Amino acid sequence: MKLDSLVLYFLTFILSLLLALYGTPLARQAAIKFGIVDKPDGNLKVQRDPVPYLGGLAIYMAYLLSLSLTFEFSHELLAIMLGGTIIVLLGLIDDFGVLKPEVKLVGQVIAAFVLIKSGTMIYLTFIPLWLRIFLTGLWIVGITNAFNIIDVMDGLSAGVAVIAAVTLSIVAMQNDKITVAVMAVSLAGAALGFLKYNFNPARIYMGDTGSMFLGFTLSALSIGNTVGSYTKMNIFGFIAPVMILGVPVFDTLFVMFFRWRRRQSMFHGSNDHFAIRLKKAGWPVRRIVLASYAASVFMSVLALVLIRLAYLPYIYVCLCLLAVFVACAAYLLGRIKMEEKVV
Predict the structure, then answer these.
(1) Parallel/antiparallel/unpaired status of strands 37-38 and 51-52
(2) Is the peptide bond before 40 cis (omega within 30 degrees of 0)?
(3) What is the C-alpha separation between 105 and 259, in angstroms, rounded?
(4) Residue 246 CB-density burial (10 A; 0-12 exposed, 13-18 middle, 19+ buried)
């Protein structure tokens, strides 16, 4: 890795971090001034006092400004930024409480189409083009909503995003994808700067603006022809992005399973999330969030190991570790009895 590239990554990360540290309190003041706050409702929103939104706007601005000041805008970067901007606008409208879930989904599909139109697509040559387009759209929309879904506890979504962004930057660096590496470290810096104010007890929330933007951008950066090949050493490497984003993917599938079993709408909130279940079991918020970070680090490291393995038995061991970890987590969490709250 060249020294000038390392300097670029470091400067972009530090600049994004500092901008988020500076911008997040300003966003908090603006949210309080204009009454853009998340009020307790006795259901899923159980914080003691109203907490201001607009943290997502601080993340977006820190990310955008740091890239503008340290890197040239390429076709690839512009496509991801344009799609991300669509998501940010959707999130802002949704944070004002005037956007229906169906309309939000349409907007996410449009943002995904922007990426696909630019050539950002899952690159698996053994499947036809139409299926690659469908899977790409499903991945982008799915991960966008997955980070929105796990944003149910102070610091959870932002911290997991930092870990995922750092991991994707490592993959990009290994594949000499400088643009993606710079974007990933910029996103990591912005989310980390925001996390200072969002960790329990949170002084500001990112809202749908931030959670969907983080999810959308990470989904775009994790796609094979963006970040580089996951399958140079073995074909099983295509699982790596699912592992890197494993915590939000797990929670999404976990929640969907219980809602499907109770025949509840997927567009409405419920208390089936793993974080809420652990809280019901008596875990304090900080322990839940730190355990989630640890799970994210574990799966990310496992993904980095997997894409470097060439010896088949070691690959099987890696996949077995993942399967046992996920199965045990799902079983133990599923045993926690929850009241059926739906909003």
Answers:
(1) antiparallel
(2) no
(3) 18
(4) buried
pTM, entire model: 0.93
Beta bridge partners of 52: 37
Helices within the chain (DSSP H only) = 3-33, 55-70, 75-95, 101-117, 129-149, 156-174, 178-198, 207-222, 224-227, 240-244, 246-261, 274-280, 285-306, 312-334
What CA–CA distance (Å, rounded) separates 237 from 257? Answer: 26
Q: What are phi and psi of 52, to 5 degrees?
A: -65, 150
- Give per-residue pLDDT as tens, 30-43: 988 888 887 765 55
Task: Report pLDDT digits (tens) over 80-101.
Answer: 999 999 999 999 888 877 778 8
Is the CA virtual torsion 122, 183, 251, 229 positive or negative?
positive
Are the C-beta atoms of residues 197 and 28 closer than 8 Å to each other?
yes
Residues 6+ apart with CB under 8 A from 47: 38, 40, 202
